Amino acid sequence: MAVTAREAPAIRVGSSQGTWILVTTVLGSSMALLDSTVVNVALPRIGRDFGASLSTLQWTVNAYMVTLAGLILLGGALGDHFGRRKIFVIGVVWFATASLLCGLAPNPGILIGARALQGIGGALLTPGSLALIQASFHPDDRARAVGLWSGCGGIGAAIGPFVGGWLVDGPGWRWVFLLNVPLALLCAPIALRHVPESAGGDGHGRFDALGAALGALALALTTYALIEARSGSPAVPVLGALGVAAGVAFVYVEKHRAYPMMPPDIFASRQFTAVNLVTLCVYAAFGGFFFLTALQLQVVAGYSPLRAGTALLPTTVLMLLFSARSGSLAERIGPRIPLTVGPLLCAVGMLLMTRVGKDASYVVDVLPALLVMGAGMVTLVAPLTATVLASVDTARAGLASGINNAAARAAGLFAVAALPLVTGMGPEAYRSADAFDAAFRRAMPLCAAVLVVGAVLAFATVRRPRAGCPHPECRAHGCVTTPPLEPPRETGASGTGAAT
C-alpha cells in the first residue's frame, strides 16, 4: 500500500520496521558514498594495470560525476511520482550492475562507460534514501532517524578510504567496485520486504527530462574539452563550444518549461545565489585536493594504497565528530563568520600540503595539513547547508539542498578536469614522481586561492538568516566531497525533485 506525502506516517525509530528502514537506506546511500571516496585511492593501480594516461584516471572519476550531478534532481522527481521505494530499489540494482561491469572491465573504455552508468544509479538511489526516511517515519521521530542515517553514513565515509586502500593492496582494485554487489544483494530485498511504498502525490506526471539531458550534456562536453585539451585535437574547441551551447540551452529550457528541474526563480533569492557561488568555490577546491592528494601520497611520497587511504581519515573523522557542534555555533553567531573563516583554514591546510614530497613523514608533514583542512571543513560545511535552507521557503528546502548538492558535484567535476591542464600535467605525469610533485605544488596554491575567493564572497554576501527559517536535519556529516542532502519537508515539498 502506497503512502502519499499528505498522509502522516506512523513508523517509529525503535520499532522493528523502523530499524529495517534505517538499515536499507544506510546500505543504499553508503554504496554511492563509498564510491565517491575509495576510487581516488585506486587510481594509480588502475592506471598501471591498463597502461593508461592521466586523462583515463580523470575520466574514471568524472564519468561518474557527470551523470550523477546532471541527473540527481531528476532522480528525486522520479521517486516522488512513481514511488520512492521503487526508484530507490531500481537505483540500487542499477548501481550494483554498473559496479559489476566496472569490476570486470577489460579496458579503460568499458570502465569509463560503466562509471557513467554508476552515476545514473547513484542519481536514483541517493535522493531516494532520505526521501524514504521522510516519508516513512513519524514526524516526532524523523529528526532522530535522519540523525542516525547521517551518522552511520559518516562512519561509512570515514572508513571508505581505509577499506579502499586495503582492497587495492589485497585482492585488487576491481574489488573496490565489486564490493557494491553484496551490499546491493542485502539492500534491495530488505527494501522490498520492510520499506513501505510512498509517493509525493503531485499528480502532474511531467518530468524535465530535456533539462536533465541538457545539463548532463553540458557537463560532459565541457569536461571532455578540459581533459582532452592537451591532445591538441581540433575536435576539442568544437566540443567545448557545444558544451557551452548546451549550458545556454539548459538555462533557456528551465526558464520556459512548466515544470523545470531547476526553477530559475529560486535564484531570485540573492542569499541563495551567493551561497551557491561560495559552494562552487569551496567544493571545486575540495574536489581537486582529494583527487590530487590521493595520487601525491602514492606517486610521490611512496605510500601504499592502504597507507594513503588511512592517511586521509582525519578530515572525515573531524567532520563526523564536530559538524553538529559547528552547526549549533553558527545558529548562535550567524553563518557569515564560519563561512569566511572555514575556507581560509582550508586554504592554509592546502598550502601546508605543499610540504608533502618524497619520503614525507606522516606526523610531521601530512597530518598537520589534514588537521587544519579538517578544522576548516568542520567550520564551514554545516553553516553552508543551513544558509542554503534558510535562503528559501520551507516548502523548497529539499529542492534547494538538491541544487546545492548538484552544484558541489559539478564544481568538483570541473576541478578534476581543469587542474591537470592548468598546472601542466602531461599524460604520463602520474608515472613520474618529480613531474607530478612539481604540478601538485602548483595546484595547491591554486586551490587555496579559489578558497580565498569563496571566503571573500561569503564575507561580502552572507547575512544572518531570518527567524523561523528551516534548519538542517542532517546534523552530523562525514562526506568530504559534497554537502549533505536534506530530506523533503512535511509541507508537501517533494525534495530534490520538488519542482520538476
From TrEMBL:
Membrane topology of this protein: Multi-pass membrane protein
Keyword hit for Electron transport: no
Keyword check for Cell membrane: yes
Subcellular location: Cell membrane
Main location (coarse class): membrane
PROSITE patterns reported in the protein's UniProt record: MFS
Domain Major facilitator superfamily (MFS) profile: 21-466
Pfam families: MFS_1
Source organism, top-level taxon: Bacteria
Ranges that cross the membrane: 20-43, 63-80, 87-106, 112-133, 145-167, 173-195, 207-227, 233-253, 274-294, 306-324, 336-354, 366-390, 402-423, 443-462
Keywords: Antibiotic resistance, Cell membrane, Membrane, Transmembrane, Transmembrane helix, Transport
InterPro entries membership: EmrB-like, MFS, MFS_dom, MFS_trans_sf
Annotated protein name in UniProt: MFS transporter
Organism: Streptomyces gibsoniae
